[in-house]
Design brief:
This protein is an alpha+beta fold. The chain has a single domain, classed as Orthogonal Bundle (Arc Repressor Mutant, subunit A), CATH 1.10.10. It has a 3-stranded antiparallel beta sheet with strand order 1-3-2. A hairpin with a 2-residue loop joins strand 2 and strand 3. It is globular, with a radius of gyration of 13 Å. The model has no long low-confidence stretch (mean pLDDT 87).
Length: 104
Amino acid sequence: MDKVFQALSSPVRRKILAYLSATSMTAGEIAERFDISKPSLSKHLSVLENAGLVESDKQGQFVHYSLIQDNLANTLNGFVQDVCPVARPIKKESLATAKKKASR
């Protein structure tokens, strides 16, 4: 439980969870949305993965990250994102990205 709360304590990690709310993304796709170094982003993704909030899947040369939907913390975070003025637009962007990927 401590790992989950530690992971959720970072605004960057909460935004990553919002971006992953509707679709998986590569580390590069996530990095495009932040003004932080790639090693720093990698550390954030590692914290989320170690907390059991996201999972990674290596596909060729890319690592895809996705939300672990059945995690209670993710369910609660998703609920909060629906009412949070900062996360709501990010979640909408995630849904739009998922629709684009589905139509390919």
